[in-house]
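FORM 7B: Structural annotation worksheet

SECTION A. Query
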Amino acid sequence: MTESFTFDTIPDNSTQLEGMLQLSTPFETAALSVLVFCHYEKNAEETFEMIDRLKGPAPLSNFDKQFLNERLKGKEYKPFSFFEGATPSNNYTPDKPYRISVSDNPYSYTNEGYATVYLKSNGADSPRPITLRQKGDKWYLWQISFLSDIKLPAKDDAWS
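SECTION B. Predicted structure
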């Protein structure tokens, strides 16, 4: 199954994110996670605060923040690559409004209370996983594994 989400804006802080949150499905939480990471270039600390909100009772550790800084610093285009219209040739500039699709597969729910869903990056050959964990009727971000390297944007690629 695939669910698509449309967003008019990228939240700048936890207050703006709060108005968007329902966290009622793993698909929604995954889509919101990508959206929040798009703010990283503007302000990493605000992004971490928003991610903490998506992570629920298990906030980011210092190790997690270091990991995310290593994955995103100088590569802020990565989260944008998951939106429709964003390609290496246009430097991962997405169409507006921002549209993202999230998919599952037969193995997405092998462990009770967890879901691994998939995001298609326009800079990668295969979908990227993101794992969510359920608490009550909410789904929270559990494992951030979708930020591996992708094709460089044209502006950074000497061979394009």
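SECTION C. Observations
Residues 2-153 form one domain. The chain has four helices and five strands.

SECTION D. Sign-off
Analyst initials: ____
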